[in-house]
Amino acid sequence: MMSKTIVVLGGGIGGLVAANKVRKELSNEHEVILVDRKTRHEFNPSFLWVLTGKREISGISRDFQLLEKKGIQYINAEVQNIDVENKQVKTSLKNISYDFLVIALGAELAPESIPGLSKSGHNLYEVEEISKLADSLKGFAGGTLMILVTNLPFKCPAAPYEGALLADYLLRQKGIRDKIEIKLFTPEGIPMKVAGPEIGEAVKEMLRKREITFNPNHELSSIDPEKKEVHFGDKKEKFDLLAYVPPNKVSLALGKTDLLTETGWVKVNPRTLETESPEVFALGDAVSIKLPSGLPLPKAGVFAHGEAEIVAKNIAARVSGEQSSHEFDGNGSCFLEIGYGKAAYAKGNFYQEPQAEIKMRGPGRIWHFNKILFEKWWLWHWF
Ligand SMILES: Cc1cc2nc3c(=O)[nH]c(=O)nc-3n(C[C@H](O)[C@H](O)[C@H](O)COP(=O)(O)OP(=O)(O)OC[C@H]3O[C@@H](n4cnc5c(N)ncnc54)[C@H](O)[C@@H]3O)c2cc1C
Asked: What are the residues whose beta carbons fall under 8 Å from the beta carbon of 24, sequence distance 6 or more?
């Protein structure tokens, strides 16, 4: 058998799993390369524990260099373009040739695409910014805390709601919640719409109980950092402290390829994760998968993880010359942290016809504890 090179672009949740699994499936004559512009893997699902002061950034990230001992070659570089015809990736360091490619570049955060946004508040999706938000909350004496979803789609449909509930928890612990209004604005009609109306209503009820105002169907038009004012069409809303979910966009490097659909994200077979180019697979937040309901599969780590396992198996099968394909089943789950050491847990099959049936359990201590266990396992298992 000829030796093959498998290149994984991105070492986030999907890329990390794909590189590890494909390495395990293939003998050492084959090369596995992981490319990431960062030097450390950051475990996003723990980010909001930095807000509550339960985690330090260093504790929820791991050095990519550690992968070398597992036989995964790590290249620290910016992916700039993919030449599918010549099976080459152009990076800031060098061109890398591949036999099989896994695109796991996630979603690019683009706060700069909204003038004034980054000057106005804290980015709820960047861990360093979450740490600054935690400091701002500590010094916050009174006024309006606004949680703002700037654009759809955004990864982790639960995150803005968790952000609002955890901020509420912190302010109550501090004994100053009665001096602060918490308002959440989103273009969504209902929280986590893809999970169905029952879950949407349950999340609205959680917000209501904690006196967090939920303002759906609010499309952001502009923001004024000096006046601390957000404009939604003709409507203006003031804030004293702002935490925002930034626009999520496809990676610039992918925008230069023919791999995207009209949605602007990478087109894949929802089961095998193959793109239209036979040696190129894509997964996670970088792809767009249309569900039977017509809505897109949410951008979430749980799907990036499940898809990566399938991609690794399919690449290993191809390397061994097998024709059969492994298929992703669409199962997913999600924790929703609410503070007080509790979380809710939603689970179901998103590929189910005609509609995904997702059930929510909790909130309770057991789900929060399960999330902690999962985090510990994750940071130990893949490094
Ligand atoms: C605050 C927060 C909480 C979350 N909580 C949960 C949760 O509880 N459960 C859940 O399932 N999901 C959660 N998510 C969502 C989850 O983190 C993402 O959906 C998931 O990480 C997507 O995996 P991915 O591999 O597609 O991309 P990512 O994990 O985003 O990885 C992409 C990688 O590619 C690298 N990269 C990007 N562009 C380039 C380039 N041009 N060159 C080189 N490298 C590049 C990045 O540095 C990154 O390491 C959360 C997200 C956030 C922000």
From this structure: 312
CA gap 56, 46 in Å, rounded: 10
Which of 7, 24, 30, 14 lies closest to 102, judged by CA?
A: 7
The answer, yes or no, to whether any atom of ligand 1 lies below 6 A from the CB of 307, is no
Give the integer Cα–Cα distance in Å for 94 and 75. Answer: 10
Q: Is 278 exposed, middle or buried (0-12, 13-18, 19+ CB in 10 A)?
A: exposed
* 241 phi and psi angles, rounded to 5 deg: -135, 135
Query: How would residue 2 be classed by pLDDT, with cut points 50, 70 and 90?
Result: confident
pLDDT digits (tens, 9 = 90+) for 147-202: 999 999 999 999 999 999 999 999 999 999 999 999 999 999 999 999 999 999 99
Output the six-digit token pair for 212.
Answer: 């967090």
Question: pLDDT value at position 256?
Answer: 87
From 44, 78, 302, give the residue whose CB has the most ligand 1 atoms within 8 Å, as the site to mutate. Answer: 44
* Per-residue model confidence (pLDDT) at position 96: 98
Quick check: CB of 302 below 6 Å from ligand 1?
A: yes
Question: In this structure, are strands 143-149 and 180-185 parallel, antiparallel, or unpaired?
Answer: parallel
Using 50, 70 and 90 to split pLDDT, how confident is the model at 1?
low
State residue 278's pLDDT score: 87
∠ CA 98-100-106, nearest 5°, is 100
Work out the mean pLDDT of the chain and round it to a whole number. Answer: 96
* Nearest Cα to Cα of residue 239 among 177, 182, 187: 182
Measured CA to CA, the distance from residue 110 to residue 150 in angstroms comes to 10
48 lines ligand 1 (CB under 6 A): yes
